[in-house]
Structure formats: structure tokens, C-alpha cells
Amino acid sequence: MRISRTSAAFALAAALTLTPVLAACTPAASPGGSATPTPTVDDGAPSPAPADVMFVQMMIPHHEQAIEMSEILLAKDGMPAELRELAEQIAAEQGPEIERMRSWLRDWGMPEMGDMAGGHGDHGGHGGMDGMLSQGELDELRDAEGDEAVDLFLRQMIAHHEGAIDMARDVIDNGRHPDVRALVDNIIASQQAEIELMTEWLDR
């Protein structure tokens, strides 16, 4: 059985995430000593599992980097129209997903990954997440031109998408929130389709 790098990253994030989530799901003791159930999130919606929270915390910077890669490609001259269209599609799809995930974290009372790490906007530093590019790889994409830029973008984005799919599959067994599961299903379907398209372009 292959163990992805995401599983290790989940374990690292658990120290900061697991306790608050479990606390939200644990009945609170009343002054008289009896347990008082904690209200569920969002008027009856199920509370997220730790795996749901960690997935959302990690997928936000993962999506942000995909948008950054797309913007780098779109800033270049002479890129094929179909590749520009794909980059625009990636940014258009993943931008709203980021906002949705941020709203979930706010509703759950949970921080974003950058807030937990006291971090900043440098997405090149999240090397523990599957498919994430290093700062050097992002700089390489920025510096590339012409056919080299096309080839590099496709190879980097395929690996990035594959990482996102691995992360999504990791949460299927241990997550329980229906909104997260719906997002997971969409990520797997849409990004797998884009991988197949980009692979066809590389094989031309």
C-alpha cells in the first residue's frame, strides 16, 4: 500500500487541529455535573471530522498555488490559446472553492494553515503537501519562455493536480462532512479530466 506525503502532513497538522475539533464534538459538563451536548455546527449540520478540517486547511494553499501557476502562464506572451483557456479555467474554478473553504473554517471556528504557522503568502514553502511546487520550481516557471514554458507548465500542473487528487482521496475514508465530500468528489472528477487533457497535449 502506498502512503502519500499528504498523510504525513496530516499528522503534522493534527497537533494544531485535532484538539479544537474534538473539543467541539465533546459534551460539555454542566455546573451540576451532567453532560450538556454542544450544539452542532450550522443549525444541525454535522460537525466536521479532524480529517475534514485538515483537508480544508491544506487545500486552500494548494489551490492558491494552482492559481499562482496559472497567472504566471497567463502573463507570458505567445502561449497557445488552448493552454491559456485551461489556465483561466483553473483559476476560475479554484478561486470560488478557496472562498467556500475559508467560509467553512470560519463557521467551524478553525484557523487557516498560514494562521497556525504564523505564516505568510509564500506557497513555495509547503513542500509537505502532495504536488506543491518549491519556490525554485515556481521561479523556473516564471523564467521559462516559449515551448519550454508550455512543457514546464503542463508537467508541473499535472503533478500538482495529481497531488490534489491524492489529498482528496485521503479524506474520503476519515471525513464525514457532506460539503467537504461534495468538494472532494468534484476535485477528483474535474482535475482528473484536466490531467488527461494535459497529458494528451504533452504526447503530441
TrEMBL record:
<feature type="signal peptide">
    <location>
        <begin position="1"/>
        <end position="23"/>
    </location>
</feature>
<dbReference type="InterPro" id="IPR005183">
    <property type="entry name" value="DUF305_CopM-like"/>
</dbReference>
<dbReference type="InterPro" id="IPR012347">
    <property type="entry name" value="Ferritin-like"/>
</dbReference>
<feature type="region of interest" description="Disordered">
    <location>
        <begin position="28"/>
        <end position="49"/>
    </location>
</feature>
<dbReference type="Pfam" id="PF03713">
    <property type="entry name" value="DUF305"/>
</dbReference>
<keyword id="KW-0732">Signal</keyword>
<feature type="domain" description="DUF305">
    <location>
        <begin position="52"/>
        <end position="202"/>
    </location>
</feature>
<protein>
    <submittedName>
        <fullName>Uncharacterized protein (DUF305 family)</fullName>
    </submittedName>
</protein>
